[in-house]
Design brief:
The chain is of the alpha+beta class. The chain has 13 helices and twelve strands.
Length: about 325
Amino acid sequence: MFPFSYTAVTDVPAALAAGRRGGRYIAGGTTLVDLMRETVERPEHLVDIDALPLRDISATAGGGLRLGALARMADAARHPLVRTGFPVVSQALELSASPQLRNMASLGGNLMQRTRCTYFRDVSAACNKRRPGAGCAALDGYNRTHAILGTSDACVATHPSDLAVALTALDATVHLLGPDGARPVAIGDFLLLPGGTPQHEHAIRPGELITSIEIPAHPRPLASGYLKVRDRRSYEFALCSAAVVLHVRDGVIRAAKVAAGGVGTVPWKLHAVERHLVGRRPAPELWIRAAQHAAAGARPLRHNGFKAELLTRTVERQLRVVGEDR
């Protein structure tokens, strides 16, 4: 680990002032400290924002939800408004990391975490995300856990967050505050595709701070759930996951929100699956037909061709589970 300076702040103006001077924000530190220890990240100045008053979880007009950026994952997962109103979020959080990490990690930090690609974390390997122009060792290396959707010639690393998959399905908004004031960014715009610049992962400007995450109101009744498929039962990142949200009224699916994780360079919104569901009556045959659209556009690599079929089966299973639980 390289030398760095450290400042703790207790109010938002002080945090923004430190950010303007080039400070790097840290809260729970469950990701950044690891990256610093591995010398993947070398910030010169850390700004501890853990004491900022950004932990509230509250309902918004119409039945939406606002999650403070510094709310701990464990606290958010068990909060009554989250657990009863949006089970898909609660389940995604509870299937993330370990209980110890969930007690420390913040929601904002979870969205800002970086890929678990082994080549990214190995400073001796070629990685465009870590060193632009260096190449991507995963393309010709062992790429079983890498992405099949949203990839480019510069990067095939998967996005690691379970929470982000649920928030993507729910069309959440990330609220930012920085030198130019406050601004909302849709989560689909906040998490960036690699393209030719995989080093840019988030649409956050220098000195900006995530203050909250807002889930919009959705029509009720609303059934939702999160399924995570992984190599081992706990403390493992997804090979594939599915967040499903369904609004069924009078026996017809009026709204459907579906997103996948573990298979994309960002959480992947499954618009074709959604379109196939809306206006139809829930039925086993419908889940099968809709799920067939899940892997559209997939570009498997040498070792992860199985992910296309796994994605189809994962989506089908979760559609069935949520559709029958409504």
